[in-house]
Amino acid sequence: MTFLRRTLIAATTAALLGASFAAVAQDIKPRLIRFGYGLNEQSNQGRAAKVFADAVEKNSGGKMKIRAIGAAALGPDTQMQQALIGGAQEMMVGSTATLVGITKEMALWDTPFLFSNAKEADILLDGPLGTKIKNKLQEKGLVGLVYWENGFRNLTNSKRAITKMEDLDGVKLRVMQNNVFLTSFQTLGANAIPMPFSELFSALETKTVDGQENPFNTILSSKFYEVQKYMTVTNHVYSPWIVTVSKKYWDQLSKDEQKVLMDAAIVSRDFERKDTRDEAAKAVGDLKAKGMMVNELSPAEATRMRDKLTKVYALVAADVGMDLWNEAQGELAKIRGKK
Ligand code: TK8
Q1: Which end of the chain is flanked by fewer CB atoms within 10 Å, N or C?
Q2: Does domain 154-238+282-337 bear CATH number 3.40.980.10?
Q3: Structural domain boundaries of the chain?
Q4: CA separation, residue 46 to residues 71, 164, 195 (Å)
Q5: Phi, psi (5° rounding) for residue 289?
Q6: Ligand 1 within 6 A of CB of 237
Q7: pLDDT at 69
Q8: From CA 306, how far away is CA 288, in angstroms rounded?
């Protein structure tokens, strides 16, 4: 073989190899991950999405990139969930409450007054029970990474101050697309209307609905104070958010890449819970400054509402199964007994 011929073969081989490397590289690097969420960028959800994105970028040495897309620009929770299952979108964060159609055990978290404080929520959500429920998503094409805090929910409306249950009579109240929430507010006498969060502001503005319920943080960040005069502190349920990945996408990742996402999710969770709690602690003052009339329920009225809502416990227990229900009650009794 002549020198020239040998050089030619070598060059061609190198070119071919180079080309195929390039193709592989293009396929996998950087991995662009669309991370959808429902609130706006200037919310606790938006801030934590940014922390998550930064941690992924850093932990992967820039090989994996999160494109965080807020304000439901990729659709409301239920639509994103389907996009993840189908593999058309990689990641999202949203309410556990909107996942009940996919994994019925998620309804456990919708139980009114399940947790008395955020500490109890952290222990259960991050413990074996929360993990077990989260892992049930896998059978349905989703991988749950961590729970974030949405928070304790409170009532707002544009009609009147709610000082007793009867004040809810005839109030058109938007609830999440979730049977436990629907039944809870029907039980309290409201005209409960399920609706995606992305439609809520304009529904309040046009008076399609009179009120809604969400944590202080969201009432503030979504500017509900512009269209809602009254806020009643009810803390009627603790809402988690959950960070999920498309299982189709997850299964294509290497163990290292999966670890990058999981580690960053934990970083984002710890940031998010602290940030949310800090913001919530100041939010009532901020909402009053924006002109909202804020009232607390008298202890007697709070107890009346609570007692009324115990009716839906049977509904939750039937949805999630008696074993899971008892396990949750047992865990809570253990935590409370320790004090
Ligand atoms: C944001 C929702 C929101 C939830 C709701 O996408 O729908 O009321 O509380 O946080 O997940």
Answers
A1: C
A2: no
A3: 3-95+117-149+241-281, 154-238+282-337
A4: 9, 35, 21
A5: -65, -30
A6: no
A7: 98
A8: 26
Q: What is the pTM of this model?
A: 0.91
The CATH architecture that domain 3-95+117-149+241-281 belongs to is: 3-Layer(aba) Sandwich (3.40)
Taking the centre of ligand 1 as the mean of its atom positions, its distance from the CA of residue 241, in whole angstroms, is 8
| Ligand 1 centroid to residue 3 C-alpha, Å | 70
Tokens at 45, concatenated: 């959800």
At 31, is the pLDDT very low, low, confident or very high (cuts 50, 70, 90)?
confident
Residue 104 or residue 338, greater confidence: 104
CB-based contact 48:148 (threshold 8 Å)? yes
Q: Which atom of ligand 1 is nearest to the CA of 95?
A: 11
- For ligand 1, is residue 154 a contact (CB within 6 Å)? no
* Rounded CA separation 107/101 (Å): 9
Model pLDDT for residues 253-312, shown as the tens digit of each residue: 999 999 999 999 999 999 999 999 999 999 999 999 999 999 999 999 999 999 999 999
- For 21, the enclosing helix (H) or strand (E) is helix 3-28
Convert 147-212 into a string of H (helix), E (strand) and C (coil).
EEEEEECEEEECCCCCCCHHHHCCCEEEECCCHHHHHHHHHCCCEEEECCHHHHHHHHHCCCCCEE
Q: Phi/psi class of residue 11: alpha, beta or left (left: φ > 0; alpha: ψ in -120 to 50)?
A: alpha
3-state helix, strand, coil in the chain (%, to 5): 55, 20, 25
Among protein residues, the one with the nearest Cα to ligand 1's atom 9 is 214
